[in-house]
Write a structure and sequence with these properties.
This protein has helices at residues 3-49, 114-125, 127-142, 148-173; strands at residues 53-59, 63-84, 89-94, 101-102, 107-111, 176-178, 183-185, 195-196, 201-218, 230-234, 242-249, 259-266, 278-291, 293-295, 300-302, 305-312, 315-326, 330-335, 342-344, 357-362. The chain is of the alpha+beta class. 18% of the residues are buried.
Length: 363
């Protein structure tokens, strides 16, 4: 091998050895330079490539807002009673048709009163003679032919006889079962010929017009409901919304539930609604006119403060607000917003003050 060849071979070996030693460092350096170049490129073109956040917005205007309390209640009769005789005996007559409307005083049923009728006839037969005795003794008394005591004795006998007659008549009335009020009579529980005691229920009488609506309010609304408060209610499978007026409330809250029981009255013309049905009740506790209202999702609470975002020249501007009346889906704003402001109502949690936004839908 010549001297020149040896120099060439050793030079190539040296270059190869150097490459093996310094190749990893050169690779890392190249990657670093590429990353720096990429960051610089993003910095230069980032303002142009950044996308705006698409949001929905609401233009504020004055509107009415109601604080509505909802609860469940039950329709109950204005009056209801289990009808029973005041005297025991065999039932001699049933004078009503089941499920019909009866008026107050209508004779519904009767038990045997023949012994009482006989006793009444006997007593009434003694009246003429008793009156004749009184008349005769009065004439004699005027002539001083009898004493005052004698006249008083026959007068007392007549009064006792009259009292006995009234007592028998009262006992006869106890054998008659009459309607104590207007209402619908239910199913008959006894038949003619049966023996009825004073505890035997003959039928159930219900006064269905008007109707009462019984419901409860919680401790928070206890002072909001009083006699005269108007309620709205609906019943299942009936699209009609009915109105009733509270006429009475309980004197104190229930110790277990801390709720206050109340009753409202509904005229129920024609007896359309039946007692016993459940009712969905709404009570308007407060109504505000010309309120500024935003959806609950448009407000953010942070560090004890509340804020919302309004649209300003393509950006979201953070505005601190004060809240008033709240419902399940809306909030009244008492300060910080006014009619005409465009409030952002979607994407609120992604927004920052000054974020660029694009309104997709506006209400």
């Amino acid at each position: 091998m010549t001297k020149v060849s040896k120099i060439i071979v050793f030079s190539l070996l040296g270059v190869l050895l150097a490459g093996i030693i310094f190749y990893p460092k050169i690779g890392r350096l190249i990657k670093k330079e590429e990353a720096v170049a990429e960051i610089k490129g993003d910095a230069k073109g980032g303002g142009q490539g950044k996308q705006k956040l698409s949001v929905n917005a609401l233009i504020l205007k004055h509107q009415s807002m109601q604080d509505v309390f909802r609860t469940k209640g039950q329709l109950i009769p204005d009056e209801e009673v289990d009808l029973s005789f005041e005297a025991s005996g065999k039932v001699t007559g049933i004078h009503f048709k089941e499920g019909t409307y009866v008026t107050k005083g209508t004779l519904l049923a009767k038990v045997n009163d023949q012994p009482l009728q006989a006793e009444l006839k006997k007593l009434e037969a003694q009246i003429p003679l008793a009156r004749e005795r009184v008349s005769r003794q009065r004439t004699l008394l005027e002539k001083d032919a009898v004493s005052q005591e004698t006249y008083q004795a026959v007068t007392t006998d007549l009064e006792k006889l009259s009292a006995d007659i009234e007592l028998v008549k009262a006992r006869i009335r106890q054998t008659e079962l009459r309607a104590p009020f207007d209402g619908v009579i239910g199913l008959r529980m006894v038949s003619e010929g049966a023996y009825a005691s004073t505890g035997t229920v003959v039928a159930h009488l219900t006064k269905v017009s008007p109707l009462k609506i019984e419901f409860s309010v919680n401790e928070k609304q206890a002072n909001e409901v009083s006699p005269g408060t108007i309620i709205q209610f609906t019943v299942e499978n009936d699209p009609t919304t009915y109105r009733a007026r509270v006429y009475a409330i309980e004197s104190k809250l229930d110790e277990k539930t801390l709720s206050l029981k109340a009753r409202a009255i509904y005229d129920n013309p024609g007896g359309r609604l039946k007692p016993g049905r459940s009712a969905s009740i709404e009570i308007i506790l407060k109504e505000i006119n010309d309120a500024i209202v935003i959806p609950s999702i448009a407000s953010v609470a942070e560090m004890g403060r509340d804020y919302a975002y309004v649209y300003k020249a393509g950006t979201a501007k953070q505005v601190f607000v004060k809240k008033g009346l709240r419902t399940a889906s809306s909030i009244q704003i008492t300060d910080g917003l006014q009619a005409g402001d465009t409030v952002l109502v979607t994407g609120v949690m992604q927004l920052r003050d000054g974020s660029e936004v694009e309104i997709q839908q506006i209400q």
